[in-house]
């Protein structure tokens, strides 16, 4: 008898569509178990708003994080949902973590800035390496970024030879070991327009990116570039390469979300657990509007997390 695996889901911001997605999931036929961590009362209320009379699915459980917890507000609720779902992975109760959207501003205080799930989960797990944000479209093409959530000014400062070498080595290793691609082919973009065009628009390419690529080629890592970022995600490149590596967040996601907004999945590499998420925000304006909510990205995030656990 095959053991059915369990995925942990943090339900996200109770004011956003994360709770809608969780409610809609109860109507799906799943090949795995799902444990949802969040506010049970809010989830039942959201289901009623969506016209779902009965939240019953033998493969889904709701873990109410408010039980036995002194949670004072929604911020604490959301953070406890993430912590509890992550803890279930650490304790091997779940084989992967899938996170639903949160509002970074709502979770930030004057003393504690919440920059994103990626950084927060890495801190919870005491990850040895800085995690790499990657995004999967069509369950195949991988887009990765040199930086996580930070200002553009700081992102530019992170385009540095040794940093690039370390991040690209980690990316290459994760693609081989986690995604089971034996000989990954990675295309690297430039930072500046037209990849600098021989230092006409900046020298980061010649000073940092090209030396990093050349060093890694000596280690038999298949890298090409730097190429202009604005044309990196063309179909020919998506066929030829396993991963396209961009220098910062928006440089990658403007193109990626245009192509894969409803279906794309965020996969964090470099963590000691498998973590995926949907590739969209809280979309508070869509709450309760069943006909306008797409569950595709959520289902893809679950499917990819389950497959990566094999």
From TrEMBL:
GO terms for molecular function: 4-hydroxythreonine-4-phosphate dehydrogenase activity; metal ion binding; NAD binding. Keywords: Metal-binding, NAD, Oxidoreductase. The keyword NAD applies. It comes from the Bacteria. It is an enzyme of class 1 (oxidoreductase). InterPro entries: PdxA_fam. Gene3D superfamilies: Isopropylmalate Dehydrogenase. Its EC number is 1.1.1.262. Pfam families: PdxA. Coiled coil: none annotated. This is 4-hydroxythreonine-4-phosphate dehydrogenase. It comes from beta proteobacterium KB13.
